[in-house]
Specification:
Length: about 350
């Protein structure tokens, strides 16, 4: 029987058969036995070392030699933009620093999606050598999506030399690049960007106001207290809530008097954020409201109120918090346990009276 997968074995068997028949004719039993041993040895040798029995084709050898990195670098030159983009994505997935110069070259690609993918990849690689090139895309690229990706990538690279380009990005005609630039300036804690971010607090777009507020909170410059306090009466509820939150982040005790009237706001999310900020600033005037809101039907409101009770640290919160530890919402129950532990640590258990002798 022929072995189609292993021509080497076929050859051995054929030659063995000829020899064996010859030996049989001569009736050399001893030689026949030697032949059998020889065949067994050949079969064992072939199965143990299949590479010797089956030669690789040149194409198979080439496929083994070309690694994914080299292959995808070559594909960056392909005429098809989709192929180039997939190559960029693969190089990003490999996380190989050798790809950085090739990806920088792809920032000049004629296809915007290839440029976006290259920007994202360089950001994930934290490629500081690409900062100048990505900064140029942020300020000069004609596609807003590319400019936005550039601002986001700079937030991963964390190179402060990009700050001037990011400040310029705050005035981009498209919202995406502006929002992303503000967020990255906050991540970099760019104090030199404070004046430009304060200017954004007057923007017509409430989302830009909120993003600028968040960035200013991350930077933590107390000189902006007045600018933030002015937004406590903003017509947009989300802007108002963010302004209240940021005042706690920068530790603005000077804003306490301006915050207290908001305890009476018609929106419970404004009220609970006010309680939270006051509690973090060391003011407990929102205690009663916090006790009430800690039992609200909205889990997000309950969580903020519970956190506030932990900061206030009043023993009157213990029954409410003990009840909240049994809440079906895991976030509510976990926050309640944490707040309860904080209060109990502040007030150690009183010594129990000695038991009466019988």
């Amino acid at each position: 029987m022929k072995n189609e997968k292993n021509p080497f074995i076929n050859q051995v068997l054929t030659e063995g058969k000829i020899i064996y028949e010859s030996k049989q004719k001569r009736k050399l039993a001893k030689g026949g036995n030697m032949l059998i041993y020889f065949l067994i040895f050949c079969l064992m040798f072939s199965s143990t070392y299949p590479l010797l029995a089956q030669e690789k084709t040149p194409q198979q050898t080439l496929q083994q030699q070309v690694d994914p990195f080299t292959s995808n670098v070559e594909k960056l030159k392909d005429k098809d933009a989709s192929v180039r983009r997939r190559a960029v994505d693969e190089l990003s997935r490999l996380r190989d620093p050798r790809a950085i110069p090739h990806l920088i070259n792809s920032l000049k690609d004629t296809d915007q999606f290839v440029r976006m993918s290259a920007v994202d990849a360089l950001g994930l690689l934290r490629a500081k050598e690409a900062t100048v090139h990505i900064s140029k895309l942020l300020t000069d690229d004609k596609e807003p999506q590319v400019r936005q990706s550039a601002a986001v990538a700079l937030g991963y690279i964390l190179d402060r030399s990009a700050i001037p380009a990011l400040i310029k990005g705050l005035k981009d005609p498209a919202d995406g690049p502006r929002f992303a630039s503000a967020q990255t300036l906050g991540i970099l804690r760019a104090t030199e960007a404070v004046p430009a971010l304060v200017e954004c607090l007057n923007d017509k777009n409430p989302n830009m106001k909120r993003t600028a507020l968040s960035a200013l909170g991350q930077i933590g410059d107390k000189s902006i207290e007045k600018n933030i306090t002015e937004l406590l009466n903003d017509s947009d509820t989300n802007v108002k809530i963010e302004a209240i939150r940021v005042l706690s982040v920068i530790g603005s005790t000077n804003s306490i008097s301006a915050l207290k009237p908001l305890l009476e706001d018609k929106d419970k999310k404004v009220k609970v954020q006010t309680v939270n900020t006051l509690s973090k600033l060391g003011d407990s005037s929102g205690l009663e409201l916090a006790l009430q809101l800690a039992q609200d039907t909205d889990p997000t409101v309950k969580i903020v109120a519970i956190e506030s009770l932990g900061f206030i640290g009043d023993k009157r919160a213990i029954p409410v918090l003990e009840k909240a530890t049994k809440d079906t919402n895991n976030y509510v129950s976990q926050n309640a346990k944490f707040a309860l532990d904080k209060i109990k640590a502040k007030y150690p258990k009183t010594e129990q009276a000695p038991s009466k002798r019988k």
